[in-house]
Amino acid sequence: MTINKNYPKSFSHIGITVPNIEEAVKFYSEVMGWYIIMQPSKVKKEKETAIGQMCIDVFGNDWDEFEIAHLATSDGIGIELFSFPNGIKEAPEFNPFNTGLFHFCVQDPNIEELIDKILSYRGKQRMPIREYYPNEKPFKMCYVEDPFGIVFEIYTHSYELTYSSGAYSK
């Protein structure tokens, strides 16, 4: 008998590049309620520290410094915010058909209130709130944008609950 040694890996964090680190920390902490675990700080290109060398390994040599901040969700998922002084200051065109990261999703049972808050911080609602099982179950979803043009999704219920009932079939 073959034993499957594979197991589901947990999600640690996501890195998001933003045009303004202070505005992004304000949005994600005040609107999303994410905890600030490391205030914005500067990282300079240098080989004398482990962080400096690691960033050279990741970003190469075509940079001098950037800003970084760390936040965390209620379930301990990290949100690593980056702001590079020489980067393009707008999100790429939304194109889910191309290979790459398409979106991330957050969960909030009060989807209407969260969308209102996103809008009050200059974010956007990209579609009407939709139900997976109209008149049967209260599972709702909606795509939105933060004020920087980064697209994400909101679910009212867990991923497992939403899809375990067969959301795409009768």
Automatic annotation (TrEMBL):
One Pfam family name is: Glyoxalase
Q: Domain named VOC: which ranges?
A: 10-157
Keyword line: Metal-binding
Q: Does the keyword Metal-binding apply?
A: yes
Query: Domain of life of the organism in this record?
Result: Bacteria
Enumerate the InterPro entries for this protein.
Glyas_Bleomycin-R_OHBP_Dase, Glyas_Fos-R_dOase_dom, MMCE/EMCE_epimerase, VOC_core
The protein in question is named VOC family protein
Q: Which organism is it from?
A: Flaviramulus multivorans
